[in-house]
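Query form — protein Alpha-N-acetylglucosaminidase C-terminal domain-containing protein

QUESTION: What is the three-dimensional structure of this chain?
INPUT:
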Amino acid sequence: MFRELTKPFLSVLDDMNTLMMSHHSFLLGNWVRSAERLALNILDKYLFRFNSLNQVTLWGPNGEVSDYAGKQWADLIESYYKARWSLFFKYNEISMSQGVRFNQSIFLADLYKYVEEPFSWTQQQFVTEPRGDSFSLARQLHTKYRDYL
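ANSWER: The structure tokens for Alpha-N-acetylglucosaminidase C-terminal domain-containing protein are given below.
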């Protein structure tokens, strides 16, 4: 039952990602690419890429100020925020199925280890050109969600 209740939430994230992907101002790929273009060599390119991703996620080597500069950008929603929420739901589902209390300390350590830190180092190629029509997508999403608003 819990899994069925989390699906709509994750679906909203998918829809947000699709909408953000429709406008150049909301593409993580443009942010990353602009940082990489400043590099004079391959090592700088990797460092600048890392810093561009780390700035909008962990904001430090260990997530000292996590989400301080968070953005609602395409690919960031899909590859980072959705992954974090999915892990949160998974750990809660495990806790409930085993009848044990949710261990936030273990969850946060695993979240950093399996989602947050790896994202800062990802070499995934992010979208740099808009996909879809923002107005049409917004109308579709309004129709889909208007009964919940």
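ADDITIONAL NOTE: The domain at 2-148 is CATH 1.20.120.670 (Four Helix Bundle (Hemerythrin (Met), subunit A)).
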